[in-house]
Amino acid sequence: MAMHRTVSYVQLGRIAYHEALQIQTLLKRCMLDKIRSPRTSRPEVQDTLLICEHEPVYTVGLRHADYLASEEQRLRELGADFHRTNRGGLITFHGPGQLMAYPIINLAHYTKSVRWYISQLERTIISTCKDFGIAATTSPDTGVWVNDNKVAAIGIQCSRYITMHGLSLNCNTDLSWFEHIVPCGIKDKGVTSLTRELKREITVQEVVPVFLEAFAREFDCSVVESAEKDLARISNFESCL
């Protein structure tokens, strides 16, 4: 009999990058602690999908030594925050009008393969775009593309098959923020958004339910809404120490 999988999603609204990162880290820590010590009294955390938007922020992945303090200062002077992270990938931008999806899931419930996981995230984005009438594809470069323009970026981190970080999908993002960087280190290619491709305003709020349906299809799971108060209870800092 096939395993019935459920993912709980939480809509965080617009939230600073560092706040979302703290929630991810705490959820992942709880999940890892439960694996290491199954009999612990710490709260059970089911697979969770965080949905949000960010205030303007540039983030860099594991190769953040490539970005000097002077570069960080230049980007901060544009009015954006700047964070060095432990995800894969190089520099990118996150901000209003961009759907951020952070799955904190145990791949043991699915397929214990990071390559499979990234492929499913790509398929979820492609399916979402298709539902809006946009033909998106993968390429040898990372992310999801419409022709030579990136519409979504993927950058994850995984330890003991527990995932964090995730993906960003440009809905009605101000794309001018990308002009100050080489997104994901890929030269001679551009960025796009659902709004630009369809020539009408496509908000994050419009995309979220379509994205959640695509996620459920591609990961063969049920996606159910969880209240922020439940997340606050589960990810209480002391409870995971």
Automatic annotation (TrEMBL):
PANTHER family given in the database record: LIPOYLTRANSFERASE 2, MITOCHONDRIAL-RELATED, OCTANOYLTRANSFERASE
Active site annotation, chain numbering: C184
Organism lineage: Eukaryota, Metazoa, Echinodermata, Eleutherozoa, Asterozoa
Function: Catalyzes the transfer of endogenously produced octanoic acid from octanoyl-acyl-carrier-protein onto the lipoyl domains of lipoate-dependent enzymes. Lipoyl-ACP can also act as a substrate although octanoyl-ACP is likely to be the physiological substrate.
EC category name: transferase
Pathway of action: Protein modification; protein lipoylation via endogenous pathway; protein N(6)-(lipoyl)lysine from octanoyl-[acyl-carrier-protein]: step 1/2
Reactions it catalyzes: octanoyl-[ACP] + L-lysyl-[protein] = N(6)-octanoyl-L-lysyl-[protein] + holo-[ACP] + H(+)
Cited CDD domains: LipB (cd16444)
Subcellular location(s) of the protein: Mitochondrion
Biological process according to GO: protein lipoylation
GO CC annotation terms, alphabetical: mitochondrion
Homology family: Belongs to the LipB family.
PROSITE patterns on file: BPL_LPL_CATALYTIC, LIPB
EC annotation from Swiss-Prot or TrEMBL: 2.3.1.181
Pfam families: LplA-B_cat (PF21948)
Primary residence: mitochondrion
Signal peptide start-end: none
Positions bound to substrate: R87, G88, G89, L90, I91, T92, F93, H94, A153, I154, G155, G166, L167, S168
UniProt superkingdom: Eukaryota
Assigned keywords, A-Z: Acyltransferase, Mitochondrion, Transferase
Protein name as it appears in the record: Octanoyl-[acyl-carrier-protein]:protein N-octanoyltransferase LIPT2, mitochondrial
UniProt organism field: Patiria miniata (Bat star)
Any one Gene Ontology molecular-function term assigned to this protein's record: lipoyl(octanoyl) transferase activity
Marked site positions, Lowers pKa of active site Cys: K150
Residues in BPL/LPL catalytic domain copies: 43-223
InterPro entries: aa-tRNA-synth_II/BPL/LPL, BPL_LPL_catalytic, Octanoyltransferase, Octanoyltransferase_CS
